[in-house]
# Entry
Amino acid sequence: MSTITAMDTFDIRFPTSLELDGSDAMNPDPDYSAAYLIIRTDAGDGHEGHGFVFTIGRGNEVETAAIEALRGHVLGRTVEDLLADMGATWKLLAHDSQLRWLGPEKGVMHMAIGAVVNALWDLKAKRAGLPLWELLAGMTPDELVALVDFRYLTDALTPDEALDILRAAQPGREARKEALRAEGYPAYTTTPGWLGYSDEKLTRLAKEAVADGFAQIKLKVGASLDDDIRRVRAARAAVGPDVRIAVDANQRWDVQEAIDWMAHLAPYDIAWIEEPTSPDDILGHAAIARGVAPIPVATGEHVQNRVVFKQMLQAGSLQVLQIDAARVAGVNENIAILLLAAKFGVRVCPHAGGVGLCEAVQHLSMFDFVAVAGTKEDRTIEFVDHLHEHFITPVDVHDGAYWPPSDPGAGNEMLSETLAAYSFPNGPVWKESR
Amino acid sequence: MSTITAMDTFDIRFPTSLELDGSDAMNPDPDYSAAYLIIRTDAGDGHEGHGFVFTIGRGNEVETAAIEALRGHVLGRTVEDLLADMGATWKLLAHDSQLRWLGPEKGVMHMAIGAVVNALWDLKAKRAGLPLWELLAGMTPDELVALVDFRYLTDALTPDEALDILRAAQPGREARKEALRAEGYPAYTTTPGWLGYSDEKLTRLAKEAVADGFAQIKLKVGASLDDDIRRVRAARAAVGPDVRIAVDANQRWDVQEAIDWMAHLAPYDIAWIEEPTSPDDILGHAAIARGVAPIPVATGEHVQNRVVFKQMLQAGSLQVLQIDAARVAGVNENIAILLLAAKFGVRVCPHAGGVGLCEAVQHLSMFDFVAVAGTKEDRTIEFVDHLHEHFITPVDVHDGAYWPPSDPGAGNEMLSETLAAYSFPNGPVWKESR
# Structure
C-alpha cells in the first residue's frame, strides 16, 4: 500500500496572444494556459498523476487556487483505495457540500475537480502500464457503470440502460481496437480558421489541411457577416466541394440572429454550426437547430456538466455533441456524457486544441469507439497544431487521423522544462516579456 | 473627480456548523462565510463600497481569489465614470474574455463579478445618500434598461419590452413607496425548519414564528420521507391551517423521485416545493412542476444567471422565482431577472438567510414592488434570524414584514470588528477554535 505524499500545483501560461493564434469572435487575445497539478506518491515506482484545467489567461491563478482547495481530499490517502474505486473517489470530490456551493457542479470549482480526477486517472493508467483509452476499454460494463454518478440523470438514463449500452458493445471490442490501430480515428483541423488570420493565410492553410489529409476544416465566424461570407467562400474555393467546412460562432449570437446569419452561410455547404449562442441556452439551441436545419448544431466545449448535456439531448438542442476533456469533472463525467450520447444516438465530435486538450480527449473518443458507441462513423476529433511539443506524449496526427497512443497514462503530462519556463508570473518566459 | 485607490478583500467565516444552523439535506454542516471586498476612493467623503459573495465554508478562499482577479478592472479608475454608467461597468467586468472562459457567466468567477458590482452599487447609493432600493426606484425606465445586458435574452425579452414594463409601473411609484413604509414587505421564516433540529425545537420555533406575525414558514425536507411526513405534520399542527408551510429539498431528488415524494407531503397543504432537483435542470423542473401541480415549484438561489432563469420561465419550470443577491452578477443581472419575471407574470420571492443575504436582497424586492412588478401580492422575502448583528444596517423585520431601510447604501457593509474577528484562518475566532 502506498500513500499520496504531495499535490503540487502550477500556473502555466503561454503568450499565444502575440500571434493571434486561437482568436475568435468572443476571445480576441487568449493566452493559452493550464492550471496544472502533479500528484506524487511514496510507491517508489516513479509514477506521478498529472492533470490540468485549460484556461485562456487571466484567472488561471483562480483555477489553480481551486485545485489547491481539493488538496485535503487527496493528500495522505491510500493510493490503492482511491484508484480502486474511482466512482467513489469522484463522489468524494464532487459531493463535498461546502465546495459544491461554489457551483454547484459548474465553473471554476467543477473544472478543478476534473483536473484532480484526471490526474488520478493518469496515475492509474501509468500504474497499469496502459494508455487511458485501453485501460477504460478493458473495464467490464459493471465497472464502467460504477464510475458514473447517475444523480439527476435517471429521467434520461438509468444505470440499467447504461449497462445495456455497454454490454451491447462488448462483443466487438477487440476488433475495434485493431481497427483503431489500422485506421486511426478521424481528425479535423481548425488551424486555418482563426478569426485574426488574413484571407491569404486562411486560403494557404486550408489547402495545406487538404494536402495533409483532413476531410474537414473549421472556420471561426460571428464578428462580421460580410467577412464571414467572404471567408467561407474563400475556404470553399480553396478546399473544393468534397471537404467539409464547419463554422464556429463561439457563443456570439442571440437565437434569431443565429438563424438569420446562418441563412447567409448555408449556400456554402456547412458541416455544422458550432456554439451559435450561450452554452447555457438549451431551449435557444433547440430553436436554432430547428431554424437552421438541415445544418446540424454542435456544442459542448463550454457545457458545464452532464445535467445540461442531458437536457440538450432531450430537447434536440444539438446534433453533434462536443465533449471537452477539461471542462466537466473529468473522465468519469465524460463517460456519463458518452453514455447519454449513445442512448440518444447522437454523434460525439470532441472539442480540442488549447493546451493538451488533443492529448487528453483522444483517449475518450477511442474508448467510446471501442466500448460505448461502437462506431466512428461521421465522428471526428478537433485538431489544432499548437503547443504539442510541451507534452511528453504528444498526439500522433497524420493522414487526417489521430493514431492511438500506446504510452501509459492519460496524455496530460507536460515536460518539466515547460513547467519551469512558462510558470506565471515568475518563469523566464514571462520575466523576459516584462 | 475621484479615483478608486484600493480594493481590499477578506475571507470571513462564521463557525455556524457547531450549532447545525443552516443544515439541510445537501448541506449538513455549513460554516456560513463571505468572500468580502471594500472599494476605497480618494474622494475624501468617507464613503466605501462593500460587497460579498456568500459561501458555506471551504472554498471561500477561492472565491476571494476570484474577486482579487477583478482588481485590475477597478483600481485606478475614475469613480464618477464607473458609477455614472453602471451598465457599461457591468459589461467591463462580465465581458472580460479571458475571465469569461472560467464560466462563462457562472460559478466562482460570475459570483465574484457580482460582489464587485454590488460593492460599486453600495458606493453609488452612499454617495447619493439613499438606500439602494430608493436609488433604483428613482431611475427612469431608460436608465434602468441601460443597466441590463440583453445578450441571450432577446428571444424572451427585448429592450423595448423591458421599457414598456417599466413605463407601465411609473405612475404609481410614489404611492407604492408610501405603501412600503406603511405596510412593509411580507417576510417568511426558515428559522424553525432546519433539518438538524429536533421535532420539539421545530414545534416551538414554528409557534414562535406565528406569534411573531409570519404568515409562512419553511421546512427542509428530502433526507428521509418518514421524517419529512412526521415533521410536516408536526409543523402543521403547530401553526394551524392558515399559516403557509413551504418545503425545501435543496436539490436532493431526481425528477420522478421528487414527484413521488411530494405526493406524500401534498395532504399537508404545501405552499411550494423549493429546489426539488439540480438547479441546472430546466426541463426536469418543468416535468416536476407538471407532476406536483397544483403545488408550485420554487427555485433560483443556485440558478447561475439570467439565461437559465429565462429558460425556466419559458419552460414553465417554476411558479415562484427566487432571486439571490449574491449568486448572479450583482444588481444589474438581478434587474434583468426581475424584468423577465414581470414579462412572464411570475412572482418573485427572494432567497435569503446566510450572511447578509437578507440585508442585500430586500432592496431588490422593494425596488421591484415600486418600479417593476408594481405589486407585492403573494410575494414574500425569506428571513432567517442569524448573523444580522454583524452588519452596520441590519434588517428591520417585525410583524412578519421587512421594513424599508432608510440608511444610505446597499446593505452589504459588515462591522469592522466582525471583519477582524472572523477573518479566516488568522482572526481570533478561528485561532481560538484550534
